[in-house]
Amino acid sequence: MAAIVQLHEGVVIKKFTLDKPLIRIGRDPESDIFIDDKVVSLEHAVVEVANEPGGKKKPSYTIRDLGSTNNTFVNDKEITAHQLLNDDLIRVGWNTFKFIDDVERKAEKTLKIHKSWIPRVYYTKE
Questions:
Q1: Main-chain phi, psi angles of 104, to 5 degrees
Q2: How many angstroms separate the CA atoms of 37 and 28, rounded?
Q3: Helix or strand or coil: residue 26?
Q4: Which end of the chain is more exposed for a tag (fewer CB within 10 A), N or C?
Q5: pTM across the whole model
Q6: DSSP class of residue 107?
Q7: Is 55 helix (H, G, I), strand (E, B) or coil?
Q8: Per-residue pLDDT of the chain in tens (126 residues, 90 and over written 9)
Q9: Would you give the DSSP letter of residue 123?
Q10: Count of CB atoms situated within 10 Å of the CB of 126
Q11: Which residues is 62 bridged to in the sheet?
């Protein structure tokens, strides 16, 4: 199941599972992802989960800025709406989050380690 994790200096400090069709992000204590920070709008952004009819395809996840004062950023680009991909970095105010899609992550190809002609030096071809 997909999730958004909150990062602090690159370390995960909180995990939010995307288990509802609409996940609200903001300073409102009733938000699904509550951020107690005055640079974050009360209703800052939402993550919409769209399931394909019949459930044969994996869900898609879209983050939308709700006209917030300080905007929403994905991978350091200001967005109004953005379809999230595995490992996208989301910034809301001073807070950084990472989108993790387990389905996409499991499908990633395992890289092969190759030995170089230099002793004890290995590499991948990616």
A1: -65, -40
A2: 10
A3: strand
A4: C
A5: 0.77
A6: H
A7: helix
A8: 899 999 998 889 999 999 999 999 999 999 999 999 999 999 999 999 997 655 667 889 999 999 999 999 999 999 999 999 999 999 999 999 999 987 655 545 667 788 888 888 887 776
A9: E
A10: 6
A11: 48, 83
